[in-house]
């Protein structure tokens, strides 16, 4: 009878141990991802993100200055989010070094990652989602924007023209409104074309901007790989268009986006602009 009781207790403990899984927290690793390319990662938290169709393939990586919801199966970010303040943009102490590297957290944990050579001679740019220019106020932050988990394939016309204009506009809004939250990413649709390495090429990209100063408001955009020039007005869309396209329930991860808490969406002329130079 005593042996049977012990076996029952042990079985119960084993089952309960398998039923739950705590988030992974990693502190202060220094990972050498290639010769003479070391990035210090101060803190990382891995957890599932809120999606319409939950997937164990998506994790959240905290790079201190910005967070990446990363799709392990597709090796692309679902989205990248960060705050941008006028106070930061008034300081430009960092140098853009263009040292693209695999994400050191993914390398350290032996998780699927992208190497920079996958883009070589592909005709596509390594398109930043958290742009280098938004982090010109801190060298460590600026260096971190060059992790490949912060990239997605973009045509030169989009990356260097239309998308760059949108990024410039967001910085003007951050300077005028004092602080904004930015959520940006590719639309990971089905049956996308790929690079030779198999990395998918998104055909659309979104950007959501949240004004963090009263009266709060939000604006959203959906850009296409073929976009060039100033298409800001044409690419402004309702929030639910982006949720439908991506399958991500942003109102769950960002409760402030729920109706009644802010002006959604705000028209272009409601946003204050300024130059932080």
From TrEMBL:
GO terms for molecular function: endonuclease activity. Residues 63-257 form the ENPP1-3/EXOG-like endonuclease/phosphodiesterase domain. It is an enzyme of class 3 (hydrolase). Residues 1-21 form the signal peptide. Its EC number is 3.1.30.-. It comes from the Bacteria. The keyword Magnesium applies. Its cofactor is Mg(2+). InterPro entries: DNA/RNA_endonuclease_AS, DNA/RNA_non-sp_Endonuclease_sf, Endo_G_ENPP1-like_dom, ENPP1-3/EXOG-like_nuc-like, His-Me_finger_sf, Non-specific_endonuclease. Keywords: Endonuclease, Hydrolase, Magnesium, Metal-binding, Nuclease, Signal. The keyword Nuclease applies. Residues 62-257 form the DNA/RNA non-specific endonuclease/pyrophosphatase/phosphodiesterase domain. It holds the Pfam family Endonuclease_NS. Gene3D superfamilies: Extracellular Endonuclease, subunit A. SUPFAM superfamilies: His-Me finger endonucleases. Belongs to the DNA/RNA non-specific endonuclease family. PANTHER family: ENDONUCLEASE G, MITOCHONDRIAL (PTHR13966:SF5), ENDONUCLEASE RELATED (PTHR13966). This is Endonuclease. It comes from Bacteriovorax antarcticus.
